Fold these 2 entries.
Entry 1:
Amino acid sequence: MTLSANKFQLAVFGCNVSHGCTISTAAHGIEVSWDESLRLARKADQLGLEAFIPVCRWKGFGGPSEFNHRAFETFTWAAGLAQATRKLFVFSTTAVPSIHPLLAAKQAATVDHISAGRFGLNVVAGWNRDEVAMFGKTQLPHDERYEYADEWMQLINDLWTREGAFDFSGKYFDAPACYAEPKPVQTPRPVVMSAGVSPAGRRFAAQHADMNFILAPNLDVARDTVADLKHIAASEFNRQVDVWGNAAIFCRPTQAEADDYYHYVIDEVGDRVAAGNLLDTFTAESASQSDDPELREAYLRNMMAGYSGFPVVGTPETVADFLQNMSACGMAGTTLSWPDYDAGLEQLGSEILPILEARGMRSPAETIQSAGER
Ligand SMILES: Cc1cc2nc3c(=O)[nH]c(=O)nc-3n(C[C@H](O)[C@H](O)[C@H](O)COP(=O)(O)O)c2cc1C
């Protein structure tokens, strides 16, 4: 299951949460308005990008930017964007403790119908203890969260694919005589993405996902992670999984200007308070932890630049080089974020996509009519 025939695929990430993925008070961050979401999704659609993926967020991280304090709910957001776009895959990101699989199965099928088979579900296990508490639940230990997610996926898969009523009885879910109709448009089910990095997260992705997003400190580590994930999927589950990266773009006409821009957004007006809050919550919950202050500073900077994605700082040519190197590491695509999404998408279309097209990484977008007037 792949989103298009392009050799290297691109998705816009994080337009549904305030400040997007950049933890900074720099101007032009995401504000979270419907006009803004529509404008950016239509632009991504016109550029022929593959997907529009939200962040699942229920609580922000404070600091001067009040990072992610505002967040559109992702199924209803995807439903609206599905109606306003033509080719783009619109995703929902769902943290499994926040929604029952029966409701998620119905919502996903509904958006899949609205979009005529362009819905994708990004399933995350839910690392944020404070958010889980908002649902009156206690955070499970790290690996057990993936056991819960595994059962959640078994039930939603059954609901999407089984005809007639059936009894489901598991450790976490009990659903007597349950069924869901209508089935999704995509068969056997909508495209499923996950974002696991730990051993438990990788196994979950290998078993259930069509695409898994990874975070890595550099491309060498990413290459190994890609190979490992594909190996687990093939050897243990007889499946194929695409692996995607996550990139934060700081692009200017010259390297010096790009460096200055990055320095401004991160060092001058970066929100270290919110990034620290996020990192503390995340590392307390993640499988791998470190007390090394240098490592913490590196994590903090990457967190500020783009939710820990690769910071890509350079000219259109060097940004294209980096994306091509991601592809050479075996990645099928990457999510993209920018401190300023409007300007970033404009520049992507006029300066970066033509380079990728000339290098055979992507085909030019078909001219598509915006579905805005419907
Ligand atoms: C591209 C990407 C997007 C993610 N989006 C979310 C999200 O929207 N909500 C969330 O709670 N976690 C999100 N995560 C975090 C993952 O669910 C996961 O906790 C993290 O990658 C660590 O992996 P692990 O659980 O295997 O340790 C995202 C991670 C990545 C790489």
Entry 2:
Amino acid sequence: MNYDIADRSLAELGDRRIEWAGRRMQVLAAIRERFEKERPLAGLTIGACMHVTTETANLMLVLRAGGANVALCASNPLSTQDDVAAALVQAGIPVYAIRGEDSETFYRHINAVLDTNPDLVFDDGCDMTTVLHEQRPDQPLIGGMEETTTGVIRLRAMEEDGVLRFPVVAVNDSDTKHLFDNRHGTGQSSLDGILRSTNILFAGRTVVVAGYGDCGLGIANRADGLGAKVIVVESNPVRALSAAMDGHEVLTSHDAAPLGDVFITATGDIRVFRQEHFEAMKDGAILANAGHFDVELDLEALGEMAMSYRELRDNLGEYTLPDGRRLLVVAEGRLVNLGAAEGHPADVMDMSFADQALAAEWLKENAPSLEPKVYVLPVDLDHEVARLKLEAMGCGLEILTEEQLAYLSSWEHGT
Ligand SMILES: NC(=O)c1ccc[n+]([C@@H]2O[C@H](COP(=O)([O-])OP(=O)(O)OC[C@H]3O[C@@H](n4cnc5c(N)ncnc54)[C@H](O)[C@@H]3O)[C@@H](O)[C@H]2O)c1
């Protein structure tokens, strides 16, 4: 849906929140300054399928400052901040998104953005790219960008099957993205979502975190910092070991189910907690998902098991089971940090979206020589983003002497 431009109060609220986020996105601001002078994206149309948040708004404005025409739709039906959408529309950027949209509207909005004939697509979860491959196979495109782990997994599967049609930059795989956004962003904001919807005290509770990748590690360590006892459920032996040596208890999902007060999934997998676990959980257990899709908690099974369901608070659904136990689900099992809070803080999205902006520029320059594969941004761009962020944070970065550089690159020294 295109927002009513007359809705000024909503747009004004969005404007102020976009400005507030922008103040903590100094790397993106530096890129914007250069883009305004150099206009590296001039002549490009960009279609974005991303969470419609204040941080995304800042990215859209930077892409436009670089000369691109931009249109935006949501990458998740629950993550749209309507005031942000209204503010962007008022600023002249078409937005097709409304919080709580149904599946049909979600896909109609993706198609509306694709109708603008984008040269580049910015995706978060690969939904727009999938629509392009399944429903619009003849639409020409220069390339794409992918923001999240789950989207990159889908793209690599497409590359392997030989069906990927254009080059895509896996922005998620830049160190300045996943080591900060996934860890610190998801870590903090997932707990923020649970706090806003429940207002529980984490101290003294048992929090079960499924998945100890970047997101799970961030969540587990933040929960630990709030005084919770953390149990990690992980299927990769090295990551499970890493969780154990970080001081967490590591158990199977079966053994963790009766112990947890709060369960948080961050695996990218399906049905991580399902009927057999719900049967063992305590009365009052709270379930939330931080993974990209709403498939990590088997809510279909929970719905079938339950005698009744009600919305207890904003973004908190309560399922009552025949034996009287109540299980609570935050934000319908969708991305908890975006469904029940505001998503990642701007401070980390600064780096993720700086990577996105630089990826667009890099793709435009290099597309003619690229194959339809998944690419990672060159490491010098990754380091440039880190350098700019360090500068903005007032940190010092050690410069090696000529002697040290020679020493570190030589095999002839020392006995
Ligand atoms: N909420 C957000 O804003 C946000 C931000 C970034 C990424 N994500 C999403 O979060 C998910 C995780 O991302 P990541 O970067 O941490 O991925 P990752 O691949 O680094 O980590 C996932 C971990 O889950 C483990 N795992 C898989 N299936 C499991 C199962 N059934 N039980 C236990 N462990 C299992 C894997 O072994 C892996 O260690 C993805 O869907 C990603 O797209 C969400």
